[in-house]
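Board notes, transcribed. Complex of a protein with heme C.
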Amino acid sequence: MDRSRRRSGLLIAIAAAASLGAAATAPLPLRAMRWLAPGADASRILTRRPVECLTIPRDRATAYSVELGRAAFRTPLLLGGQAARAGVACETCHRNGRTNPDFDFPGLSGAPGTADVTSFVFSSHRGDHVDDPRPIPDLGGPKSALRISQAPGSPALKRFIHGLVTEEFDGAEPPPAVLAGLAAYVRALSPAACSPRRLEPVRVESDIDDARRAVLAAQGALARGDAAAALLMVQAARSRLGDIAERYGDPALRPTRQSLVVADLDLAATLAVIRQSKPASAERLSMWLARSHRWAAVVERDEARSLYEPTVLATASVPRGR
Ligand code: HEC
């Protein structure tokens, strides 16, 4: 069978669930609600997440690599077609690099917290797709509990992630530095870096920080002459801004949302400048960072009225007509 032509069961499931959701129900306030079990309490689940167990390495080259991987891990655009359109990123299943006990995607999950992502990666010899949902592993857990070797020098992890991105999720070939970065990020997660606190609140401040970190990584990529990685990092920042804007959908918050749209348009224009290899690219990113405190202050001011706030999300999540 021509593997490159075959669509994985995962993509078919994501496409089917996305279109079904669109046809059958009013739009959900947060797209992450699509992958929660029916009746799950979104206001509790989507306002808390596991704590990230990340050690940023001391040497600058590895730290840069980890930051590239960290941002790519959170970007649906790393993955292809249907997954990207549905808004699925590595982090959808591995929340904050960990696991997701509430992940429940029709046709893809068995019990909540499981997914079938292995149709190619472990079982490419199989002719037919076989349903085989497995628990989503905690990538911040003990390395000994993980199946893929992370031994220094072993190519297994990079190969595995490459298979996930290009085969399972039908994504484009990632820039080599981004692929290496994803492996570096996964390697930099470990129980030694976990805090005793298991969960943390999802706050707009940390999502803003993610967007800034992605732009900083884009600057690092440009400084290394890696335009392809820089483009993906700018896209990563844009998708984080999109995640934030989604939580400010209330019409009363329109001006706040608008400030995010402006910040996003600025990045969209920067993409074009990077594509044309103009020297102004780096300068534009610096200016974006320098200006970001302005919209960030407005967005943070209104956080209590947004869907970051559990009580607001609880009200918004009640299905209409009940
Ligand atoms: C749809 C949910 C889902 C998405 C999206 C996803 N994963 Fe996973 N991941 C899983 C599941 C389930 C497994 C366990 C597979 C198994 O045990 O056969 C897994 C396994 C892994 C492993 C191997 C862990 C081990 O045991 O050694 C790594 C590393 C990993 N994922 C990284 C990633 C990266 C990087 C991405 C994004 C490119 C990603 N995952 C996207 C669900 C997901």
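Residues 1-7, 119-128 have pLDDT under 50 and may be disordered. The radius of gyration is 19 Å.
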